[in-house]
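It is worth pausing here to work through a concrete case rather than discussing structure prediction in the abstract. The textbook approach is simple: state the sequence, then state the predicted structure, then interpret. We follow exactly that order.
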Amino acid sequence: MPERIHHALVLNLHQPSGNLEYLLDNNEWEAKEILWALDRIPRSLWDYEDTAKVHLAFSGTLLETLSRKEFQDRVYGIVKCGDLLWHFQNTKIFEILGTAYYHSVFPLIPKEDWDDQCIRWQGIGKHLFWREKFNGFWPPEMGFCMEMIPMIKKLGFRYVLVDSENVEPLESMRWEELRYQPHIARYEDSEIIVVVRDRELSDAQESGMEWDWFSREINERVKWCNFNPLITTITDGDNGGWFRNTSGNGNFWNVFYKELLNKNRAKETTIVPSFISDYLTTYGARGYVNVTTAAWNTGWHNGKGFTQWTGSQFQKHGLEEIARISSRFHSFLNSTEDAIKSRFETEINDAHWHLLRSETSCNFFWGEAWVYKTIEDLNYVKKILDMLESQ
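Step two, the predicted structure:
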């Protein structure tokens, strides 16, 4: 049995562009539940700076909404967004992860747009969280492929999160070594550290669990470890009744996480909340792995083949249109004189962010219901390109 068991808690926080505003108009209670779920995170941890360690992956669209003055004024009295963003700057409690601005599933969108999704996020992340570097990278929906490694490395990230069902050892490893140690993945001349999400424990975190069960389960899973393991659990942090529940006796923070923190503070457990960056500094990464192209599991699919986002012909059509319009947009940029690009800089930037927004994962997650949002954004881009190409 290891001396210390490190637990990395990771929460994905995302709302697509305009969604909170729509809910405030049409389903105010749900909007309040989401905002309170966000606000509950720092409020639950204020008194635990000595023990709490939480990783947060905010989409750019959520950060954009929370930082917009008009939205802040509208929800004043529900939450104080400025205070909320300020509390998330606390580096003793929170490690902020980089991601795609529009929460895109990278393997499903054109490679030419990967950098722009991340650089756009880094811009707002640096501005709101007052830091220049983000160590960890969260691929939305845990949609990952090995071809992403050079991009992630180039943009300065130290590690990337991947799902346990998609990791394959390239050398001899026991089950617990593969799942509970960081590893190295290599693509061409680039390497990145991969940190493995435990799928089953994450499922329990999502649906609701008690401390006693979690403690027994982890100790059983790591009992043969001859190293201090890193247990990584990753779920949404603002979706589902477990995180949105407004009752003090019915949500993740009060029922589970505070008990973990109190047990840790009283030295009654060897399970220690930890930052991934600190773990890597102390223990490093061991062994090479391959990560298969896939996503995390959803309520309907296991992540293989991206069926959640590609299951219907209309979903496939939307993704094909993204590829076609993206190719047209980048061809225009690469073949157009600088004078034209300077003259129409505003229009080009407008087309660009509409293109990137069309790649939002939510537009495809809900079957065919939201694909129209992608088509609307792409039609806007086409209209601008028609004008630009006629010059």
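Step three, interpretation. The chain has two domains: 5-291, 311-389. Residues 311-389 form one domain.
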